[in-house]
Amino acid sequence: MIRAINVNKFFYTPDELHALKDVSLHVAAGEVVVVIGPSGSGKSTFLRCLNRLEYADSGEIFVEDQNILDPACDINKVRAEVGMVFQSFNLFPHMSVLENVVMAQMTVRKRSRKDAEAKGMELLRKVGIAEKHGVYPDQLSGGQQQRVAIARSLAMDPKVMLFDEPTSALDPEMVGEVLDVMRNLAREGMTMVVVTHEMGFAREVADRVVFMDVGQILETGTPEHFFTAPGHERTKLFLSQIL
Ligand code: ADP
Ligand code: MG
């Protein structure tokens, strides 16, 4: 589903920084890959390259058969197929919950309002928040907003879902409800790349765990490998700090 091959990314402000160094990752359809690593290691930059929020400087990135770094590739199409959920929920504050989930279906997927609303309600039910369809985002808790943000992404029928620390901004008691939604998505076979510090989720849901440090993938393996016998000293140090 995703093939990233030798992806490099540089930033030039404030100083030159080689943020991604020959990062390669293949994600099969239906696979759940959890990306872990210290702050500043390039996890967000890598995810953002996968839906072209950042344009990689070199390397190749394919989503299914589509070369997303081809200048001729339609960026809106890429974003519709590669859904992304951020730490900050980024709902549209002036729109109701349902409208948040409906709008891009009409503009990007060209669905009628009736179809978009029907699908929107179905997805709000799926994330357990249908009864709130008429309220505005600021009337919801963080966990509820994040579930709406997931529903909004799913409304595009993405082929892949990227999650960038989706629970890091939440109060502890709301983390579980968002992880439950993600766990259910994984069970239904969604292809997912998840940056998270929730090691319980990684252990239970990940097919594969990837450890990034200083812009590189240092180690890849099953959750068992990571939590029982990590190979790299940097991985051991990182895990000892967060577990
Ligand atoms: P992580 O998500 O693992 O914490 P990031 O991908 O956000 O790491 O950042 C990797 C490195 O790239 C960091 O040193 C960060 O400061 C830098 N960086 C990220 N985005 C930008 C940007 N837009 N401009 C300059 N530097 C950036
Ligand atoms: Mg990040």
UniProtKB/TrEMBL annotation:
Gene3D superfamilies: P-loop containing nucleotide triphosphate hydrolases (3.40.50.300). Keywords: ATP-binding, Nucleotide-binding, Transport. Belongs to the ABC transporter superfamily. InterPro entries: AAA+_ATPase, ABC_ATPase_HisP-typ, ABC_transporter-like_ATP-bd, ABC_transporter-like_CS, MetN_ABC_transporter-like, P-loop_NTPase. Residues 2-239 form the ABC transporter domain. PANTHER family: AMINO ACID IMPORT ATP-BINDING PROTEIN, PHOSPHONATES IMPORT ATP-BINDING PROTEIN PHNC. It holds the Pfam family ABC_tran. It comes from the Bacteria. SMART domains: AAA. This is Amino acid ABC transporter ATPase. One of its GO terms (molecular function) is ATP hydrolysis activity.
